[in-house]
Amino acid sequence: MDAPTALDRRRTAYGEHRWSDAIADFDAADRASAATALDLAQFAIAATLVGRFEEGVDWLTRAHEAFLADGDVDGAVRCAAWLGMQFMDAGDRAQAGGWFARAQRLVDEHPEGRPDHGFLLIPEGLAALYGGDGARAASVFGRAAELARAAKDPDLVALAELGLGQSEIMLGRPAAGLARLDEVMVAVTAGEVSPVPSGIVYCAVLQACRLAFDVQRAHEWTRALDRWCAERPDMVAFSGQCHAQRAALFLLHGAWAEALAAAEEAQERSARGDRDGLYSAWYQLGEVHRLRGEPDAAMAAYEQASRTGWEPQPGLALLRLAQGEPAVARTMILAAADRLDPAERRWLLPATVEIQLGAGDVVAARAAVDEIRALTRSNTMPLVQAIFEQAEAAVLLAEGDPRAALTTARHAWAKWRELDVPYEAARCRVLAARACRALDDEASAAMELDAARAEFAELGAGQALAAMETESPSAPTPQPGGLSAREVEVLRLVAAGETNRQIAGELYLSEKTVQRHLSNIFGKLGVSTRSAATAFAFRHELAG
Q: Which of 4, 165, 290, 535 is an S-S bond match for 298, by CB 3.0 to 4.6 Å?
């Protein structure tokens, strides 16, 4: 094969975002020893994008050496800085530190080099950001941005401005931070930024939207990320993060079957090479299972998420609360809050309120609500206001003010409806029902509960439906054999000849939960077979 022809094909494939074709053609050209330092660097990018991390590192190392051989110090510094960042992202601190040290030595030996040496400031800024020091991060990223503009380097400008926007959000200035991130995204969507920095920006901006409680921006930029990934069908890097973000939005808006499919796709994509997507993929999978009332599957997913090095919170703590372990849940959520930076900690506040109330500590719950109230002063996003009013209603109810709780719960319900978040809207109706009951308005309480139950059933919210067994505004009618209302439902379906799997599907429970109910039924009735239990159901007119 003629080497220049192979290189021409590789360069064309690279330019058309056909990364796998670029790798195949480049390999042939490289064997003919015709590759330049720039070719080696582009091959490294293509290998990284299709999930071949180790090969990408090998080719980027060769590119670094080739740039040095050509006397191109700036190219060598850039390769060394990217290698350091890749190893830092992979958790290999020793190799990351070695490459950063090499890049710094080259800068010190060649001070006349171009100002794009500001790439070395990016990891320093990230370290400050991850350490929760927003002010120091802003200072470092600011210096990097000055060097980037002097160098007219769009990749470095994008990374520096990204860091500045994230720092603003951490410092409690979401409007300024999001405006800066919007400007970065304009450069990315215009194609001014190369592929790897573009993917970093996309995923980081979506995370920033979450931290700033900006649902609308998250929608807009997720659609942009979807289009960007679709134009690069063989790209693995960033694709897991893309699907995990889609899962989170599906879950928020009540499309739980779609959320489950997106979370499973995120897990598969992440396992193929998008390591940064693994945590979100497993966490979102756990959230779907938790809300559907499938605790075993949720726990398995949370355990996988925790193996990535990140805590699966607040989901795991809320699962423990639903399982009747409020003390464990409180220990988990408070410990997680202590370890997180201010921006991430704000996301735990709604769960903290719920868990503190579940543990019976109304004073601590009020303190958490006051933190959310303070957040509403600097962040005017509708999502923040809905979160605050829902939490405020729950605490007002626990404090013995049902009239104020009812008004606030209905305000929160209206905001969730406007945001198209059906699960939280239904939970506000449960709060309203409790307030009505406390005001001796049983008719209104029953209507609120019926509406909430219908919404939960449509969503498949098994956990919420199970919890509603205790929400009946009137005393439950005694059942034969001392069975609970849920046990009567299970027995009725057993008598209809349904299997445990069919019962689980109809009642939005896990099969393990159905088996537990069946064991309790057998114990209360003093029987040991489904046929004997069915006979009891017919004798006492419990069968459908």
A: 290
The residues, any chain, with a CB within 8 Å of residue 354's CB and separated by 6 or more, are 318, 321, 391, 394
Average pLDDT over residues 485-494: 83
Helical H segments across 212-294, by residue range: 215-230, 239-252, 256-271, 278-291
Q: Report the SS3 class of residue 523.
A: helix
Equal fold, 380-471 vs 480-539: no
CATH architecture of 480-539: Orthogonal Bundle (1.10)
Beta-carbon contacts of 440 under 8 Å, excluding residues fewer than 6 positions away, are: none
Contact 39, 68 (CB under 8 A): no
- pTM beyond 0.85: the answer is no
Torsion sign over Cα 24, 28, 31, 36: negative
DSSP string, 438-474: HTT-HHHHHHHHHHHHHHHHHHT-HHHHHHGGGG-SS
Q: For residue 139, give the nearest of 115, 104, 169, 163 by alpha carbon.
A: 163
CATH no. of 236-312: 1.25.40.10
Q: What is the pLDDT of residues 51-102, one digit of tens each?
A: 888 888 998 999 999 999 998 888 898 899 889 888 887 778 899 889 989 9
State both tokens at 344.
């991430």
From CA 312, how far away is CA 307, in angstroms rounded? 10
3-state secondary structure of 1: coil
Is 1.25.40.10 the CATH classification of the domain at 380-471?
yes
| E-assigned strand segments in 269-367 | none
The four Cα atoms 168, 171, 174, 175 give a dihedral, to 10 degrees, of -60
- Decide: helix, strand or coil at residue 196: helix
* Residue 355 and residue 367 in contact, taking contact as beta carbons nearer than 8 Å: no
Residue 118 is classified by DSSP as G
Residue with tokens 């290998």: 47
CA distances (Å), origin 86, targets 23, 48, 204, 353 = 19, 10, 16, 38
Q: Which of 158, 250, 247, 244 has the alpha carbon at shortest distance from 195? A: 158
Q: How far is CA 282 from CA 263, 351, 507, 535, in A?
A: 7, 19, 25, 44
Ranges of each domain in the chain: 236-312, 380-471, 480-539
Q: Is the dihedral of CA 446, 451, 452, 453 positive or negative?
A: positive
Q: Is 434 in contact with 454 (CB distance < 8 Å)?
A: no
Structure confidence at residue 474 (pLDDT): 47
Distance, CA of 28 to CA of 460 (rounded, Å): 54
